[in-house]
Write a structure and sequence with these properties.
By secondary structure, this protein is of the alpha/beta class. Among the domains are: 47-153, Nucleic acid-binding proteins (OB fold (Dihydrolipoamide Acetyltransferase, E2P)), CATH 2.40.50; 249-434, 3-Layer(aba) Sandwich (Rossmann fold), CATH 3.40.50.300; 445-600, P-loop containing nucleotide triphosphate hydrolases (Rossmann fold). The protein contains 23 helices and 22 strands. The protein binds adenosine-5'-diphosphate and magnesium ion. Residues 256, 258-259, 262, 285, 287-293, 414, 438, 542, 571 line the site of adenosine-5'-diphosphate. InterPro entries: DEAD/DEAH_box_helicase_dom, Helicase_ATP-bd, Helicase_C-like, NA-bd_OB-fold, P-loop_NTPase, RecG/Mfd, RecG_dom3_C, RecG_wedge.
């Protein structure tokens, strides 16, 4: 049972003031379902503004607070351009306050000519005029803005504004209780860390590194502890030893010989499966390294041993793709493979459920639908989880309960986690690595191109398509507003569609799953030639004929993410090209990232470099795939704090493995807080 003290912050967000049905969707998009999620919705960054007496004191690009008196309102001719309010500072300098679109209504209301106003925003230049585009705040009195000089900037979703999120956060923080300390006292002292509740408050108030560290540490500690509980529990469990007779595997008629690395991984898995202790193994291999066939061999062993296997994919698109690949590869073997997703309803679903129950289905591929309560297996002995990082271990355990005995688990990931971090995410697993790509793969020709040459790039795409091949076009994610990103993608899509017509499809996060699937399928089948997407291009999507990747504003992406995206091409034997479009204002780090992308295709190297580059100054940088397991801790914090968190957890387990002492109790609360409470349930199960 969850400790009572957590109840106030485990209430649903809609119990907060001002949360009606309208906010349900945006909050859900941000993953904020409980009040504690809101409290943990830490600012992406802070705007620090300087109060200046006049414009001479400010520099371009600076965030300022300044008193200005509007002198004149200028609507653009025809009403199509921006709406400008000219305003004067204390010594007569003029600055334009610029508004686009419907925001001009606000301007008319807030900025009456002749009346002094306090303005907060970023000073820019437009031609020879100073301007502030969409001021962040306009106030009649200076003191209204005094607490806005350091202001948190939160990640938003359509329908939410910064002030709205800030007000929800305030309410959530008021509800946060004081909790007894779970961190080893010496550790907290060394870091100079505030107590949990204080840390939460501080982290929202300003760039308070110690508070952020403490909260990140909590998450890492909770995870380490939960994984140790799993491991301890797994040691006590019994699985079914699986020994195959090769009957099925011998019938596999692969069009290629396995690589040495694949063979080695299969041998390692085979060794684990033969044991009674349930396997917990991670198969790590870069994009395109050939993990699927390794998974298939493992599943065939399970079937040879008279049991069933399940493959869990993170999305419907991937589930479908895996299903089709496996079905094609396994055709000569003569086994029954089924696809089960949340969309299957009625008769079709019934017959699959029947087949799983009576054992006539050997392999089921699907999304989380395959471990709903209504799904029962005759004899499930192996679970393969693709893109493991998308799932919590908790879900894995739910699946594990499906078998008569605990199934063996093989988790696969293409995320090249730096070696230093493997422990963090997969602390409870053995690791097999496919550290070699299939032969004959050509290096992807990676080039950095200035955005100024966009039309040449479009010409290149056109020639590419005329040559019979396909291409991806990735639009950047700017994060502050997903709406803006999608607007940008839609705009790009529209301009490309004007040129390429029906050959282009668009995929982004706000499409309905059916629309997304339909677009993906048109592209996968080769009917559409160009796929325009925000970063939602699913990890793992495999279209070998797509050999050109264009990434706009590539400098905005982290290295690991660029690597994942680039991995969508170079999957066939044709030469592939990746064009990284860069903006003009390139930071040193941005420059270095793009250079590294050109230099290497080694995912592990890129992951390590990514970590190094992000070590300094980019603490609050864009979150990337592979980090989803942690919501609070970023990559740099994981690398820096994990070893201590791991040791701390181990020490606690040694002293108080049942988590019954004072700190043990506090640690249980922590596990609930981070929804790692399946760890506690394992404890109770003894
Ligand atoms: P990933 O590890 O990214 O999941 P896949 O399993 O999708 O990689 O394999 C990528 C491609 O490489 C597939 O088209 C697959 O058929 C092919 N492939 C896998 N193993 C080999 C091999 N040993 N030799 C040649 N091609 C291979
Ligand atoms: Mg794959």
């Amino acid at each position: 049972m969850r400790p009572d003290i957590l109840n106030p912050i485990f209430a649903e967000v809609n119990t907060l003031d001002g949360v009606g049905p309208k906010l349900a969707k945006p909050l859900e998009r941000l993953g904020l379902s409980k009040i504690k999620d809101v409290a943990y919705h830490l600012p992406d960054r802070f705007v620090e503004r300087r109060a200046v007496a006049n414009l001479d004191e400010a520099s371009e690009g600076e965030q300022i607070v300044i008193a200005l008196t509007p002198t004149e309102h200028r609507a653009s001719r025809g009403g199509r351009g921006p709406y400008r309010v000219l305003a004067q500072d204390a010594i007569g300098n003029i600055c334009a306050l610029t508004y686009f679109g419907r925001a001009s209504y606000t301007a008319k209301k807030l900025l009456p000519p002749g009346e002094l106003r306090w303005i907060a925003g970023r000073l820019d230049r437009y031609g020879d005029m100073l301007q502030i585009v969409h001021p962040d705040h306009v106030a009649e009195k200076a003191d209204t803005l005094s607490d806005k000089q350091v202001e948190p900037i939160y990640r938003l979703a359509e329908g939410l504004t910064q002030p709205r999120v800030a007000s929800l956060v305030d309410q959530a923080l008021d509800l946060a209780p004081e909790l007894s300390e779970w961190i080893e006292p010496g550790q907290a002292d060394r870091g100079g860390w505030p107590a949990w509740r204080d840390a939460l408050h501080l982290a929202h108030r300003g760039p308070h590194e110690k508070a952020r560290d403490r909260l990140a540490y909590d998450e890492l500690f909770a995870n380490a502890l939960a994984l140790m509980l799993v491991r301890a529990d797994n040691r006590k469990r019994r699985g079914t030893p699986l020994r195959g007779d090769r009957a099925l595997r011998d019938r596999l008629n692969l069009p290629f010989p396995l690589t040495g690395a694949q063979t080695r991984c299969i041998t390692e898995i085979e060794g684990d499966l033969a044991q009674e202790a349930p396997m917990l193994r991670l198969l790590q291999g870069d994009v395109g390294s050939g993990k699927t066939v390794v998974a298939l061999e493992a599943m065939l062993i399970a079937i040879e041993a008279g049991t069933q296997a399940a493959l869990l994919a993170p999305t419907e698109i991937l589930a479908r793709q895996h299903y089709e690949t496996l079905r094609d590869m396994a055709r000569p073997v003569g086994i029954e493979i089924a696809l089960l997703t949340g969309r299957d309803k009625g008769k079709a679903r019934e017959s699959i459920l029947m087949g799983l129950l009576d054992g006539s289905i050997d392999i089921v591929v699907g999304t989380h639908a395959i471990f709903q309560d209504s799904v029962a297996y005759r004899n499930l002995a192996l679970v393969v989880i693709d893109e493991q990082h998308r799932f919590g271990v908790g879900q894995r355990l739910m699946l594990a309960r499906k078998g008569k005995t605990t199934p063996h688990t093989l988790a696969m990931t293409a995320t090249p986690i730096p070696r230093t971090l493997t422990l963090a995410q997969y602390g409870e697993m053995e690791v097999s690595q496919i550290d070699e790509l299939p032969p004959g793969r050509q290096a992807i020709d990676t080039r950095v191109v200035s955005t100024g040459r966009l039309s040449e790039v479009a010409d290149g795409v056109s020639r590419h398509i005329e040559g019979g091949q396909q291409a991806y076009w990735v639009c950047p994610i700017v994060r502050e507003s997903e709406t803006d990103d999608i607007a940008a993608a839609e705009q790009r899509f529209a301009s490309l569609k004007a040129r390429f017509g029906d050959d282009v499809v668009l995929v982004h996060g706000q499409l309905r799953p059916e629309e997304k699937d339909a677009a993906m399928e048109r592209f996968a089948s080769g009917e559409a030639k160009l796929l325009v997407a925000t970063t939602v291009i699913e990890v793992g999507v495999d279209v070998p004929n797509a050999t050109l990747m264009v990434i706009e504003q590539a400098e905005r992406f982290g290295l690991a993410q660029l690597h994942q995206l680039r991995g969508r091409v170079g999957r066939g034997s044709e030469k592939s090209v990746c064009l990284l479009l860069r903006g003009d204002a390139l930071s040193e780090t941005g420059r270095e990232r793009l250079a590294l992308m050109r230099e290497t295709q080694d995912g592990f190297r890129l992951a390590e470099e990514d970590l190094r580059l992000r070590g300094g100054g980019e603490l609050l940088g864009t979150r990337q795939s592979g980090e989803e397991a942690f919501r609070i801790a970023d990559l740099e914090q994981i690398a820096r704090l994990l070893p201590a968190a791991h040791d701390d957890a181990r020490l606690l387990m040694e002293r108080d493995g049942g988590l019954t002492g004072t700190r043990g109790e506090a640690a249980r609360t922590l596990l609930y807080l981070f929804e790692r409470d399946w760890g506690v349930q394992l404890l109770r199960g003894g």
